[in-house]
Structures are given as structure tokens and as C-alpha cells.
UniProtKB/TrEMBL annotation:
PANTHER family (alphabetical): ANKYRIN REPEAT AND PROTEIN KINASE DOMAIN-CONTAINING PROTEIN (PTHR24198), ANKYRIN REPEAT-CONTAINING PROTEIN-RELATED (PTHR24198:SF165)
The protein, known as: Ankyrin repeat protein RF_0381
Family annotation (SUPFAM superfamilies): Ankyrin repeat (SSF48403)
Keyword Hydrolase: no
Domain of life: Eukaryota
Amino acid sequence: DSDGNTPLHIAVESKNASAVKCILQHGPDLKLQNKTGQTALHIGVKARNIEITKLLLDYKADANIRDHYDKTPLHVAIQNGDVAIVEDLLKNNADINMTLEDDCYPYREMKPLFLATRFGQKDVIQKLLEFNADINQKNDKGKTILDFALELQKLDMVEFILQNKPAINHIGKLDLLAKVMPAFEIKFKTYSEFITQFHKLLNILVDNGLKFSTEETNNEALIKTAIETRCIKILKSILMEDVSTEAKNNALFFAVDKYYHHYDTADTIMNTIIELLIDNGADVNAQHLLVHAIKKSNLKCVATLFKKGASVNMNNSTELLTAAINHCTKGMILLLIQNGADIKAAIAQKGDALVLNSVIRGRYFSTELLWKYGAPSNVCNADGQTLLHVAANKCVRTVA
């Protein structure tokens, strides 16, 4: 006809098995293609007609002819999820590794296993594996189907693939996981859902033998991933490997920075993470760590650092108190003093600035405390205004 369909094409499309059988008995050319490049077998597979597909294969229809979209009948059957037809095609010499080249897909070259993964066809994957498809085969980008499932954030497919014992420690696996995290965050509606799903993914991989080593990945990037996703189990696994002190210190700073970052309920977990990092060699007195925690105004975090050995004597006491007065509450200032911060020394070094900043910020307690320890009260700002003028201008009645 005008679309290039032969009588056999038409009979197959009409699902008329009797007509198909009759035509086949007269020896038609089964390789003839219509204007879209489809053979009769393509049409039968597309229609999901097992009976007619079997008939065509019994008469030696070629299972490896590509249509004008580069698809073989096997590709079509995989997309449809027709396990029985996939099996029939494979029994009749369909090429189990024939790639589908199409720029519409995430990768230009899609082998049958990748195509089945793309469409979430678990039963099809199982059937392909039964016919000796290599679960560790790589595409044109050097990725396996496990990598592909991870990139698609298909957790159910990841779990299924892992049941078939793929190699999961090849180069780049952990880099991929670290890069996948932002995609997970975009996909899930709430941050808590993202945390739950990504935590589940990482634990699945660890439970299936994922190892961590400096040769395979940027450990520091993955440590940060584990911290942000609150994956203590993963973090412990990484820290058991050869992780540099610098990486641990950077991770500790990152954990302090992420404290309270999303939900208050994460405090207990983040406390555990901070303690875990310190117990495994991160320096609790690393430069700027304590002052950064103070500037984050997080009393619990600072208390945890002191509990694990942070010392005001190994930091700049005046800098710590200045940060507390400028950024924090009464509790933070008292915590610093209780842990040895020398408020008199701070006043001696920069008493004018401390008092002025305290008044500007309306810090009644810190202003009173500074005066109690001898800070001057006759301070003026750059415009010559006294503390009373500053308090009045800022409408800070308590300080005035």
C-alpha cells in the first residue's frame, strides 16, 4: 500500500493469525520493510501478539533487522515489557547486545539491558540475564546498568540489580553517588523524603559489599555526602579507610556548618556525626572551627565541641567572645566563660568595640556583663555619638 505495507504486514497488523499463516505458507520475503522500516515481525512484536510473533519466527523471520528508528524487534519487546516475546526472540537468535542508537535517550547507545533498566522492566532484565547477558557490561560512556539505575534514581531497580550480584566496586562508583545527591534532592518533594531515600540507597550498596578507598573516589566529597544525608553507617565505613587528617578536618567543619541546616530534629544525629569525626582523628581545635560554630549561634554544637576537647586556650579567646557577643545569646557567652574564656582580657584588648557592638545589637545581657567586668561606658561611635545616643537611635530601650 502507500505506506509500503505488504499483505503480510497488513495481516499481522490486523491480528489475523489465519491470514498470516496462509501467507507464510506461500514463502513471502520476511525481510521486506515498510516506509518506517518495520518488518512484519516488528509489527507483530509492537502489537504484543505472541501467537503471530511465534508464527513469524517459526518461518525464520530475521529478529535483528532495524527499523528507521534504529529499533530491532527485541528493542520493541523490551520497551513493551513483553517477557514471553523477548524469550522467543532470544531463542531465535536475536542479538542480546545490539545497541539502540538514539539521541533521545540518556546515552546514545542503549544495549538491551540498559533499555530494560530505562523502562524499569525487571522481568525482562531477568530474562536477558538467563540468556547470558553480562550484568557488568558497559555502555559507550563506560557505565553499567547499576550506574544507570543510580543516575535515574530508580531505587527499586538498584535493589533488583543488586540481587543479581553485579560488580559494585569499579572505578568511579562513589564519585557517581556523590554527584547523584543533588538530583535526588530535586526529585523528592521534601528534604526529609530525600534524606530517607538517599540513606536507603547508600545502605543498600554497603549491604551489598560496596567498599570505600582513596583509589576509587574523592573520599572528602563522599564524606560530605554522608554527613549531609545523615548516613552514620556510611560515614563509619569511609572513616575505616585511609582518610587524610585534612579530609577529616574539612568534614568536621562541614558538619558544624550543616548543624541546624535543615531541621532541628537533626541535632542528635549531627552531634553523633561530630563526635564520630573527632573520635576518628578530626582535630576539634582546628583553626576557625570553634569560632565558626559560635557564629552559627548553635549552643548545642559548641557544647559538643567543648565536650570533645575544644579548648579556648588553643583558640583566640577574645575572638571567641567577640563572635559570641556579636552573634549569640546569653547562654553562648556563659558557656565560653565556663570553659575558660577570659572576658577581662577581651575587654582589655577591644573593650570599646565590644560594648559598642553589644549596644548596637541590643544585647542587654552582654552589655551588662561587659560593664560588670570593667568595660568602659563612655564610648562613642565614629560619628561621636555616645552609647545612649546609639541605643536611642536603635530604639533599644533595655540598653538605654
